[in-house]
Amino acid sequence: MSSDLGGDFCVVCGADPPLYGERMCEPCVRKRVKLVKVPENVPWVRCARCGIVEIQGKWVHISEEEIWDELIQRHVVVHEQASEVGLAFETRRVSDRHTLIYIQVEGVIEGLLFKEEHTMRARMANGVCLTCTRRAGNYFEATVQLRSTGRRLIEEEFTALRATLDTVIDELADDPMFFITSEGAVTGGYDVVLGSKGLARTWGRHLVSNYGGHLAESNSTVGRKDGIDVTRLTLLYRKPGYDLGDVLRWRDKFWRPATWSKDGAIMSRIDRQERTGATWRDLESANVIAQMKDHIVADIITEDSSVGEFLDPTTWSMAEVRLPWDHVAKEKLRLARIDGEWLALHKLGCDDDDEGKAV
Ligand SMILES: [Zn+2]
Ligand SMILES: [Zn+2]
Description:
Number of helices: 5
Structural class: alpha+beta
Largest sheet: 6 strands, mixed
Bound molecules: zinc ion
Distance between the termini: 118 Å
Strand content: 35-45%
Order of helices and strands: HEEEEHEEEEHEHEEHEEEEEEEEEEEEEE
Shape: elongated
């Protein structure tokens, strides 16, 4: 003991200054103070079916690197008085379930620089996430039925419609209920059974805004749980099977959709000058008779006030057709074949972009 009476000394070992913190010399401080506390083993849970990871009760898609970051942030406790803390780590996988995390950390406490190295073992446990639990139980909340009006869609058209669901799921935030329970072709359409009503509605809106058409929603009660009705949603989406300019049989007459409107189409009648607005629902009874791609455009050989003659490309002989109400002498005719007869069509704006099959 070399300290003078009344002079400062280490309260633990009596050493002379400099003293730090609670009046201890540097060796005594270093013996008692640790920069970080690191548990030996830390658990984490991965879904054995789909691989997503549980973080504080939430299932999330994260990379391994992010898992280690997360475990360090959650389990490594830094001394509350530490400043200028820097941390680096490396990992080594020792088995399927065990990964060692080597942590190097430095920081300043009471003016003393601390450098420490620790090893933490991350132990993975298998779990089953909510999505996989529900999927395994064939859980579903909603069915989306893809159908068409006007004509039956071909398989490729249904495939294209179905593909938009993947886009919608990708664009939405991670939600464990955004999954497909089952799906498949049915007579006249395609059905997709989904884990979430919200996903079904979002997809439905996406279909309407991208392809037009009509969405009908119905709910059925399937039981009660905790005093609340459990309902399931059915969304029937009808995509119009026609395009502008196609010939439709509608209300016993032939019409052509001239332009799209907010909730349907402006229909233009073929046998006389008449236009009318029709909603998607109105048009559910329409049938496509001749798509634009099946029209032909023919030169007139001779014409009088009501009838024109042209070369019929199906027989290579002359044929007659009643001229359309807006006919201008000598102009070409746009023709559709309907029930074995030719029908001359009046002009629409969309005809300019489509030459038809010229003959
Ligand atoms: Zn001491
Ligand atoms: Zn899972």
